[in-house]
Design brief:
The complex is a heterodimer.
Chain A: E1 3-5, E2 10-14, E3 19-21, E4 24-26, E5 32-39, E6 46-52, E7 60-61, E8 64-69, E9 74-79, E10 88-96, E11 105-106, E12 110-115
Parallel strand pairs in A: 2-12
Antiparallel strand pairs in A: 1-4, 3-9, 5-6, 5-10, 7-8, 8-9, 10-11, 10-12
Chain B: E1 5-7, E2 10-13, E3 19-24, E4 31-38, E5 42-50, E6 53-57, E7 64-68, E8 74-78, E9 87-94, E10 105-106, E11 110-114
Parallel strand pairs in B: 2-11
Antiparallel strand pairs in B: 1-3, 3-8, 4-5, 4-9, 5-6, 7-8, 9-10, 9-11
The chains are: A mainly beta, B mainly beta.
Chain lengths: 116, 115
């Protein structure tokens, strides 16, 4: 079975500073993918960044980067230069490449608040 | 805009009733997924359809059923509704059956309130 754990229910960060949102995962699959999504208060789910288990380099997308440590089974999201619009819920998710469909398993989420 | 369309946006109904939620996937996507989001359970995977066939099943109650039609739109039917079914229901889509490194693209959700 796959499991995603996000241990920070809520976090605060000052505008323009960097913040790290933690995510650890558990899986028996040899190949898998890790995803981060943002859910603003308006409710939609926005895809941010993807990391494959065999990718040697950490993924980056603009101000988002993923600190992937395979041995520790962690996939932390780093947001640089935080903006007020980054205030939202952030979900870590994974998909096993195990021929059991394309579903994503989500963590409980971290609520990020950016202070001006 | 993800390209995934869900209707209606809001639904208020009484216990014991039946409702149907509708989803149109992104153009070109063959897989449709249904998720339930509630405060106590978080985001729970319900079911996946690929090109009209059920592909994977998650924590979907027997009172709930879904289907995907030849035009690839999908419907989620919820019956004998209970107060605990109140939640945000998301539809998502992706290109393939297993989808590999492709993200799921989510609709804006249907907010269901059971009174």
């Amino acid at each position: 079975a796959q499991k995603i754990t996000q241990t920070q229910p809520g976090m605060f960060v000052q505008e323009k500073e960097a913040v790290t949102l933690d995510c650890t995962y558990d899986t028996s699959d040899q190949s898998y993918g890790l995803f981060w999504y943002k859910q603003p208060s308006s409710g939609e789910m926005i895809f941010l960044i993807y990391q494959g288990s065999y990718d040697e380099q950490n993924a980056t997308e603009g101000r988002y980067s993923l600190n992937f440590q395979k041995a520790r089974k962690s996939a932390n999201l780093v947001i640089s230069a935080s903006q007020l619009g980054d205030s939202a819920m952030y979900f870590c998710a994974m998909r096993g490449w195990n021929n059991q469909g394309g579903k994503l398993i989500f963590g409980q989420g971290t609520e990020l608040s950016v202070k001006p | 805009d993800s390209g995934v369309t869900q209707t209606p946006k809001h639904l208020i109904t009484a216990t014991g009733q039946r409702v149907t939620l509708r989803c149109s996937p992104r153009s070109g996507d063959l897989s449709v997924y249904w998720y339930q989001q509630s405060l106590d359970q978080g985001l729970q995977f319900l079911i996946q359809y690929y090109n009209g066939e059920e592909r994977a099943k998650g924590n979907i109650l027997e009172r709930f059923s879904a289907q995907q039609f030849p035009d690839l739109h999908s419907e989620l039917n919820l019956s004998s509704l209970e107060l605990g079914d109140s939640a945000l229901y998301f539809c998502a889509s992706s290109v393939g059956r297993e989808s590999g490194n492709s993200p799921l693209h989510f609709g804006n959700g249907t907010r269901l309130t059971v009174t």
